[in-house]
Amino acid sequence: MAIFNAKNRVIECKIVYYGPGRGGKTTNLEYIFKAFRKQTTGEMVSIDTKGDRTLFFDFLPMGIGKIRGCDVSIQLYTVPGQVKYGSTRKMVLKGVDGIVFVADSLEVRRTDNLFSLKDLQQNLAEQNMSIFEVPLVLQYNKRDLAEEGIPLIPVETMDGGLNKKLKVPSYPASALKGTGVGATLKECLKLTLRNLQQELKWAR
Amino acid sequence: MSDQHHIRSLVKEAEIYRGQGLFVASREKYLHILQFIENNKRLCNDKKLVNTVKNKIVNLENDVAGLHQETAVPELSQDVQGLIKKLFSFSEDQGAAAMEGAVALAKFGQYEAALAEFQRLLEEGTFPLMAAKNILRCHLALSSPNVAIDQFGQWVSGNLLSKEYLKHTRAFLANVLEKRGIKTELPEVAQTSSVADQKDEQEDVLDISSVRVQLENGPDKGSVVEFDVSFQSGNIISVIVSARQKDLADTFSLGIRLPDIQFYSPIAIFRGSGIVSGKTKIKSGPKRGDYMLDIKIEGA
């Protein structure tokens, strides 16, 4: 739920990175923190267990300057992907304005992607939101592993499997190398701010 | 491709999965390698190779088992706890926001910090019933049912909670203890009124599990329908009306008052009224096409 301070012309929105465990959500945020240092307004907070699995969430605050007369600040979150942390995912998703779904391109993760997307749909429905209406971008991560000869799901197949009904923008990416990370975030921000403009009429 | 080359390629794949924390996929790959070796006349007698692969599989099985173990929740720094409180409180009302922050701390396993917050809220008289129940929840989560029981005893002999709140709190604690198989006699709530009885300005709403609503209009006027509560936020409950019962859903137009509702909670049944404050057609998911009704409980 974005906060719009009409008096000070400040809008604050929340973007959540969702997806199966070990899919690269935290790596996305780490890359953003490193590559967009000027835009970050605080340290990245990461709460993980040994083995680097996200236990609660990652958090990164950013300020992207003035857009149409309004100071825009964004809060980036990741959810823990492991199935057992369902209640934490619901909590982090509360008040979300835009979502990046980070799908794992590895052939062996095909069903994990589908389960996670279904989980997202259900958790959104629980807060009276529709996956078909929320600003959403798909990211097909780990494309770099093709160079290692690891079997990946072709981008077209991923689009056919995950995005057939959603029909949202999708980006092949390598969060580790940074490829596609900025483009994904930028697109999600664009959709989110456009959606919030319809809702809050924040832009001049 | 030679057999050695094939195995090397499979091992590389398995190791990449392992490096990514995908232990199940890695184990599957090593099982595949083992099967390949055992079916290969030239390689099946290479005990060193077979044992190496078997050891890898055992290690990965341990890693997989580790994933299913409960992870100990770390005690976070005060800064991070403060951040959690800030990030997960959404209400504009200060008291409600403080309660949301404290609940978030508890949900993230920061029970000691949450306890301190709930105690503060209780002493301030902010949502006292909710604060009291959460204090007990925290004690129970910290595996201290005796502390929870002692705490309840202190409330009974003090004046922080009104008689009504004490009764609710007692029923709540008794229910939780019973579920855990703990048999104990909780202190009885005295019938005399305490100071806190006079400040019952904000009765907290119980957790409601289902409702029975008497229909006041429509073709089935006078009949009673029952709904399970799918979601509750304070004094607003949400129920689902099936798409197949469109006539019934039409009966509940937005803003309509429902003067006769029976509310069922795990600890009490009470009668009251409500207003249909929201009505949405679910557009996705397994309940697609059904209607979600929000009912605001009056006087809560």
Task: Provide a concise account of the structure shown.
By secondary structure, chain A is α/β, with parallel strands linked by helices. Chain A is built from 5 helices and 8 strands. Chain A is globular, with a radius of gyration of 16 Å.
Describe the structure.
- The complex is a heterodimer of chains A (204) and B (300).
- Chain A is an alpha/beta fold.
- Chain A has one domain (3-200): P-loop containing nucleotide triphosphate hydrolases (Rossmann fold).
- Chain A has helices at 25-35, 86-93, 110-126, 155-162, 181-200, and strands at 3-5, 10-18, 45-48, 54-67, 70-78, 98-104, 136-141, 170-172.
- In chain A, strands 1, 2, 3, 4, 5, 6, 7 and 8 form an eight-stranded mixed sheet that branches.
- In chain A, a hairpin with a 5-residue loop joins strand 3 (45-48) and strand 4.
- Chain A is globular and about 55 Å long.
- The relative contact order of chain A is 0.19.
- With 300 residues, chain B is an alpha+beta fold.
- Chain B has three domains: 3-68, no CATH class; 78-199, Serine Threonine Protein Phosphatase 5, Tetratricopeptide repeat (Alpha Horseshoe), CATH 1.25.40; 210-297.
- In chain B, 48% of the residues lie in helices and 16% in strands.
- Chain B contains ten helices and six strands; from the N terminus they run αααααααααβββαβββ.
- Chain B has a six-stranded antiparallel barrel.
- In chain B, a hairpin with a 2-residue loop joins strand 2 and strand 3.
- In chain B, helix 4 (78-87) crosses helix 5, helix 5 (94-107) runs antiparallel to helix 6 and helix 7 (128-141) packs antiparallel against helix 8.
- Chain B is extended.
- At the A-B interface, strand 4, helix 2 and helix 3 of A face helix 1 and helix 4 of B.
